[in-house]
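fold-stage: in
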Amino acid sequence: MYIVSSCLCGNPCRYDGSAGQVHKYPKIRELLAQGLAVPVCPEVLGGLPVPRPPAEITGGRAADVLQGRARVVNIYGDDVTQNYVEGARKALYIALQAGCTKAVLKERSPACGVRAVYDGTFSNKCVPGEGVLAALLKAHGFEVISDEDL
């Protein structure tokens, strides 16, 4: 079983209100058709609206966010750390309840990024790192796969 970023399943939950293009991901379509994918959006699970202002991790990495040493802030400077942490924890709970052991997540997202996230300056620059959910899932032994590797 896989937990999958909901936007990759075609659900309109991205920060800008758009949906991912599920036709780009035949593997995800196959997992959904077989009942092997559980879509989650940690930002929405954490109480953020759709659409919402873009957000980035500042002051550290995702593991630091989970330990209270870094923050997630939106483009207006509002601290949305608690939303990201709560959403990641809820997504982990859903994944465990569903028997998931793997995840396919949206690259560059402050929640779901697997190998890269935006650098916290809102300048469209990426740095190596992961999102809050990706870090939490890895810490719990999940195999985490980037959508770019499908």
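fold-stage: in (second)
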Amino acid sequence: MDLTELQRLMEALYGQSDRARGVPSTVAWLAEELGELAQAVRKGTREQQVHEFGDVLAWLASLANQMDITLDEAMQRYLDNPP
């Protein structure tokens, strides 16, 4: 799955409810998922780590969708002029 497909999937599955929840709540959920990923990386199994990476990607895609930003657009600078 590429980034565009990820965003399309998240829009199809959760777009309406994500927009109703709003950007501030989505940022909070993303932050919570990042914390869970950090914990899984430190102490979790590979299965838990894979699960949490998926959750972070899903919430990031949801937030990008709400902000009308494509993840491809966000990553373009790494192609054009990496930091």
